[in-house]
Amino acid sequence: MSKISRYMKMFVVWIALLMSVTHVEAVDLASPEVFDPVFYSNNHHQVISHSVNTPEAVKQHWLTHGIDAGWQGSGQFHSKEYIARYPDLQKAFGNNYRAAIQHYLTFHSSEHRNGLSTSQNFEGRWTVSNHGIYIGSSTRTGGAVDSLTWNNKEFINSWDHGRQMQMACNTNKYTECYNPTEAGGVCDAALQTTHTHIDWVHVHGNVMESMVHPAFWKPVKPTSGTHHDCNYGRLCPAHHGYHTTYDYPFHKKITIGTHEINNCFEFVSNFTIGGNWPQDELFIQMESPAVYLTYEFSKQFTFNPSTRLAANYHDKHLPVIRSTPDHNYALGAYTPTGQDTDIHENYDSHFYKSSNFASTTSKFNVIFYKRPHGTGVHQYIYRTYFCIGTLNDVTSCLHQIMTAVPK
Ligand SMILES: *[C@@H]1O[C@H](CO)[C@@H](O)[C@H](O)[C@H]1NC(C)=O
Fold it and tell me: Which residues are the signal sequence here (predicted)?
């Protein structure tokens, strides 16, 4: 090898290094591809404090603490899992999570690498994905959906147990005092654990399915012995041999991409109601499901199927949409008529302001009502379709799914 070509080679290597360094500097380590302030604070509660309580302050926390600790910053990427998935990255990065994030942001699309697995659990989380939509659930929330992202934005508020996107049912006599709740009970608060018992969660590409025995939302004061470990227990009278976890399963199946509509996903809620369910109330009320969104989804609309437009929220019997004020991010729900219900299906929507952005939330839900069927065991199964995207994407998706599945 001549001297010249050796110099040439060194020069090329030097240029390549310089370029890669320049490239690395151009990477935004808090890019929404790897970091969302709501997901981050919902999953790492210790982040929020008196002084750290804005998305900007939380972002600084991520840059200075979360990245190097290997914490998950978004529902669609986890540095630790990214490294664990690829032997060459394990070799190159070990536990240098900062370098792994730089690598992901620079090369994941050209190298067709994924930041998460959609076929197995990683550190207590399951994720499925299709067409740029990611849906995640966790052991913390009893397998209930605690993350939904589209276009790199977190939609779900998972500040404490009982928000999320989840199934719940109650009797309208005892309301919250007989209220099995998929994502956990009120005493689970913001803890990492839940009184919901997970039987199993399966993920496979774009399909998530689970079966759990849900926690009762509020526990009941025991008839004997000392008080329950949670103060809320004092609010509920003892009845029906009630304990912390419901005796029957909740089963759900979510499929992203349905009826050839890419930005539509199907949510099938399957409630088992039986045995000791109270017989003396007016209705079994089933949220199929309830959805708690982040502080940004402050606008609510009713979808008008005849004009195909979003109108001001006014009708509980027409599909509901929640959106950000700029209409860039929206989620709509439609549930076909003709399902097993004693009252026409109901869409409800509320906004709850709180002391910090991460716990401020808006809720909408799809509710079915059944009169008690007696003491036998019965399954109630309801299909709801969600449309996600910009407000325009959502209205056109709602039109398509209502045409494809009129009942
Ligand atoms: C409903 O859930 C039960 C278990 O809880 C299961 O045996 C049954 O197959 C489910 N039905 C449907 C249609 O998914």
Answer: 1-26
* CB of residue 251 inside a 6 A radius of ligand 1: yes
Q: Indicate if ligand 1 lies below 6 Å from the C-beta of 181.
A: no
Q: State if residue 167 touches ligand 1 by the CB under 6 angstroms criterion.
A: no
Q: Name the residue of 198, 199, 213, 251 to mutate for ligand 1: max ligand atoms within 8 A of Cβ.
A: 251
Question: Distance between CA 388 and CA 122 in Å, rounded?
Answer: 26
Q: At 78, is the secondary structure helix, strand, or coil?
A: coil
Q: How far is the CA of 246 from the centre of ligand 1 (A)?
A: 16
Q: Please, what is the Cα angle at 251 between 300 and 379, to 5 degrees?
A: 100
Rounded Cα distance between 336 and 345, Å, is 9
The CATH number fitting domain 125-404, selected from 1.10.760, 3.40.390, 2.70.98, 2.40.160 = 2.70.98
The pLDDT assigned to 26 comes to: 77
Series of mean pLDDT values for 10-residue runs along the chain (407 residues): 48 45 70 97 91 95 98 98 97 97 97 96 98 97 98 96 95 85 91 94 98 89 56 59 82 98 98 84 91 96 97 93 98 95 86 86 94 91 98 98 96
Query: Would you kindly state where each structural domain of the chain is located, as residue ranges?
Result: 3-74+79-111, 125-404
Amino acid identity of residue 239, one-letter, is: H
Residue minimizing CA distance to atom 3 of ligand 1:
251
- Kindly state if the Cβ of 381 falls inside 6 Å of ligand 1: yes
